[in-house]
Amino acid sequence: MTLELRGMRVGILATDGVERVELDQPRGALQGAGAKTEIISLHQGEIQARQFDLDPAGSFPVDRLVADASVDDYQALLLPGGTMNPDQLRMDRDAVRFVKDFMASGKPVASICHGPWTLAEADAVRGRRLTSWPSIRTDLRNAGADVVDEEVVVDGELVTSRGPDDLPAFCAAVVERFARAHHPVPG
């Protein structure tokens, strides 16, 4: 195991309805590479996870409220999916502001499945090439994105993937992209 992300602080923006595997696996890959992760959410306490959007799948403790979070506190951002999770995030002014500011910062952002819904609400997909769960692709196109059907797409600092089946490729791309940002090569 390499620790190329040692010292990197990654925010994970999620709320109730997050797809458990889409939070667990990327977080495990990030922590395995040495990153410190924090779950940022809309409310204190715990967020309720789901499996396949339908079945309860435990909970995650919240580390920080998005209303109190600053882009300056993190070097990268992860936006997991699940249908209910980003649908709630995109309705919250603080969450949308946080995502918009993060995208404007030039720091790396990774999003999977329905996660890009929040990016669209933050007007952060216009002119970007990305992928997502099939049911939100029209929304992303309408928000100005170039949407493709690929396992993982890297567009500058943005990494996106379609869903749980793509998690191995997504996790590898996220660690690689975040490591490049954490250890830039002089050029």
Automatic annotation (TrEMBL):
InterPro entries: C56_PfpI-like, Class_I_gatase-like, DJ-1/PfpI. The keyword Transferase applies. It comes from the Bacteria. Residues 8-176 form the DJ-1/PfpI domain. GO terms for molecular function: transferase activity. Keywords: Glutamine amidotransferase, Transferase. Signal peptide: none annotated. The keyword Transferase applies. NCBIfam families: PfpI. Belongs to the peptidase C56 family. This is Type 1 glutamine amidotransferase. It comes from Streptomyces apricus.
